[in-house]
Specification:
- Helix 9 links the parallel strand 7 and strand 8.
- This protein is globular.
- Helix 2 crosses helix 6 and helix 6 runs antiparallel to helix 7.
- By secondary structure, it is of the alpha/beta class.
Length: 415
C-alpha cells in the first residue's frame, strides 16, 4: 500500500506551519474532540476503552498521531508503518469507513474550539483537506485487512461466537481461557504475538466493552488461548472486562471475538538469535513467540528473560522451563522485584530487583539478535533505552504497547 499525496504545496505548507501549535495544544484538542464525539455519537462508546479515556491515554495517543501526520504530511509513506499498526487495532474494533467523516467533523470543531482565532479558515480548510487524504489511506489499508481476515482459511467478518472449553489459573492474577468456535467450523491461524478483540456484554453496564488480548499459545492448535490479568484496582481503575472474565465466565460460556490482528509478531524468516524480554502480563504475546521459535527453529539461539514481582503473580514458568529444558540452545532467566520467602528458599530466580544493562551484559546476551519486548510502560522504556545504548537498530527492536501507544524516549528507566 502506497500513500498517494493529493495535497497542494500550499496546503502542505499550511499543515506544517501548525506543527508547533499541535506540540503545545495537541492534547487539549484531542480531549475536546472526544468530548464532542461522544456527546453527539454516544453509540461509539461501545468501541472505546473508557479507562483509557478517563486516564487521558487515548487523548495522548491521538495527539501524537496527529502531530506525526502533520510533521510528515509531505511524505505520508514514512508513517505507513504507524498507519498499519493503528489499522490493525481499528480492524479488530470494527472501525469502518463510515466512521471517518464523523471523526473528521469533530476534530476540526475541536481545533477551532481550542485554538480559537488562531484556527483561521485557511488552516481549517487545509486540515480538512489533509484529513480527507489521511482518512483515505486508513480506509484503503483497513479494507485490505477486513478482506484478509474474512477470506483466510477459517476466517470471519465481524464478531464470532466462541465457546470457553477450559479456564486455567496461571497465577494469583492471571487466568487463561481456552476458546473454540461455537459453530464447530475451522479456526483461523495467526502469527505468534497477535491478539484478538473480546467483546464483553455485561448486564449492569450501559455500553459494551471491547478489549484486546494476546493469543498466548502457539498457532496451529485446535483452540485459541488468551491469558488475562485481573486488574483489581489497587493502583489503577479496576478492570471491567478482566474482572468480568475472571469472575463471571466459566467453561461452557460463550464470548465474542474478532479475527486475530496485530503487527507485533515473531519473524520466522530471520536467521538471527532471538531475545524475548517480558515484564508482568506482557509475557503473553512473547510466550507464543518463544514457543513457536523453539518448535520451528530448534537450532536457533533463543533467550527468554522475564521480570515479575515474585512467583505468586508469575504465570507460565513451568511451561517455559519445560520448553527450555528440551533444547540446549535455549536460555531462560528470571528477575523478581520482591521475591517472597519461598522464592528465596528455593532460589527460583536469577536476579532480585530490576532488569538492568549490567545484568544483561553478564548474561552475554547477543546484541546481534532480534529483540522482542513487552510489559508495563516503565519496563518498556528501560528495555528500549538499553537496546538503544547497545546500538541495536530499529529494525531489530520489536515491541508492543498494551493500550494506546506512548513515547519510549522519555527519561524514566525505573521498572
Amino acid at each position: 500500500m502506497t500513500a498517494k499525496n493529493k495535497l497542494s504545496e500550499e496546503t502542505i505548507a499550511i499543515i506544517k506551519s501548525t506543527v508547533p501549535v499541535l506540540a503545545e495544544h495537541g492534547e487539549a484538542i484531542t480531549k475536546q474532540f472526544y468530548h464532542l464525539l461522544f456527546t453527539n455519537h454516544p453509540e461509539l462508546l461501545h468501541m472505546f476503552n473508557h479507562v483509557n479515556q478517563s486516564e487521558g491515554k487515548q487523548q495522548r495517543a491521538l495527539a501524537q498521531s496527529i502531530y506525526a501526520a502533520a510533521a510528515h504530511i509531505d511524505k505520508l509513506d514514512e508513517i505507513l508503518p504507524v498507519v498499519k499498526q493503528i489499522a490493525h487495532k481499528h480492524r479488530s474494533l470494527q472501525v469502518k469507513a463510515e466512521h471517518y467523516p464523523i471523526v473528521g467533523k469533530y476534530l476540526l470543531i475541536a481545533m477551532k474550539d481550542v485554538l480559537q482565532e488562531a484556527a483561521t479558515d485557511e488552516i481549517l480548510d487545509a486540515w480538512g483537506e489533509a484529513y480527507s487524504v489521511i482518512a483515505d489511506v486508513f480506509i484503503a489499508v483497513e479494507k485490505e485487512m477486513y478482506e484478509e481476515a474474512e477470506n483466510q482459511a477459517g476466517g470471519w467478518e465481524g464478531f464470532r461466537s466462541f465457546l470457553v472449553i477450559d479456564k486455567v489459573k496461571e497465577s494469583e492474577v492471571i487466568t487463561s481461557f481456552y476458546l473454540q468456535p461455537a459453530d464447530g467450523e475451522r479456526l483461523a491461524s495467526y502469527r505468534p504475538g497477535q491478539y484478538v478483540s473480546v467483546k464483553a456484554i455485561i448486564e449492569e453496564e450501559e455500553y459494551n466493552h471491547i478489549r484486546q488480548y494476546s493469543l498466548s499459545e502457539v498457532p496451529g492448535r485446535h483452540y485459541y488461548r488468551i491469558s488475562v490479568k485481573r486488574e483489581d484496582g489497587r493502583e489503577t481503575p479496576a478492570g471491567i472486562v478482566s474482572n468480568y472474565l475472571h469472575h463471571s465466565i466459566e467453561p461452557g460460556d460463550k464470548v465474542e471475538l474478532t479475527a486475530p490482528a496485530g503487527d507485533f509478531f515473531f519473524d520466522k524468516a530471520s536467521s538471527r538469535p532471538a531475545v524475548f524480554l517480558s515484564g508482568g502480563v506482557g509475557q503473553t504475546p512473547l510466550v507464543s513467540m518463544f514457543k513457536t521459535a523453539a518448535e520451528d527453529s530448534p537450532t536457533k539461539d533463543i533467550t527468554y528473560i522475564h521480570a515479575a514481582l515474585n512467583s505468586s503473580v508469575h504465570a507460565f514458568d513451568q511451561e517455559i522451563r519445560d520448553t527450555a529444558d528440551r533444547n540446549e540452545k535455549i536460555s531462560y532467566y528470571l528477575c523478581y522485584e520482591l521475591p517472597n520467602e519461598s522464592d528465596k528458599q528455593k532460589k527460583v530466580y536469577d536476579k532480585e530487583g530490576f532488569i538492568d544493562e549490567e545484568w544483561l551484559n553478564s548474561l552475554a546476551v547477543s546484541r546481534d539478535a532480534e529483540f522482542y519486548f513487552c510489559g508495563p510502560l516503565p519496563f518498556m522504556k528501560a528495555m528500549y533505552s538499553i537496546l538503544k545504548e547497545w546500538g541495536v537498530p530499529e529494525e531489530r527492536t520489536h515491541f508492543e504497547f498494551f493500550g494506546p501507544s506512548d513515547n519510549l524516549e522519555r527519561e524514566d528507566n525505573k521498572h
